[in-house]
What does this fold into?
Amino acid sequence: MLSKILIEKQKLTHQDINVLDCLHLLKDYLFNESLNSLNSIEEYNQKMINLESAMQYMWKFDTNPKYHTHWFLDPKCTCSKQDNMDRQGTGYYIVNQSCPLHGD
Ligand SMILES: [Zn+2]
It folds into this structure.
């Protein structure tokens, strides 16, 4: 569910909202992909970066990866959600080395 307050603040059109709804469906689809079905983790992570940049663009924000949050909200990710939320915008992240998506 998109924030109605933010929609008004950013002066989004119905078309913008429709595109954002589609991007969120795609995010949910990617979140539901099992690790076994991924061709490569690097390709998957790049798709998430591209998707989140597209979301920022549609929200009329700067496309800045320092403010991306979905990469660690993926249910497959075991990196600390709270620590990374607290570091939003800094460019510093806490990565769990055993995370199947972001670890070594
Ligand atoms: Zn992770």
